[in-house]
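Notes from hallway chat w/ T.B., transcribed later so I don't forget. T.B. wanted the structure written out for a chain they're using in a teaching module, and asked if we could keep both sequence and structure tokens in one place. Agreed to drop them here.
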Amino acid sequence: MINGMDIDDCVDGIVASCNGDLRGALKALMLVNEQLERELARVSALATRPIRSRAAANALH
């Protein structure tokens, strides 16, 4: 289930939002996946950074 919907209903909804164009639906999903992968990489990079103390972050250099 995705957001309370059966997976088949989700697929039908995605295809319907692309006017029944399966190729368009697949392309849209691939673009969304690419965007999510970039966001995940960004968040992962932030998560692996050392945490600076608030005082150090606010210090003038």
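Follow-up for T.B.: The mean pLDDT is 87. Might be a good example for the class.
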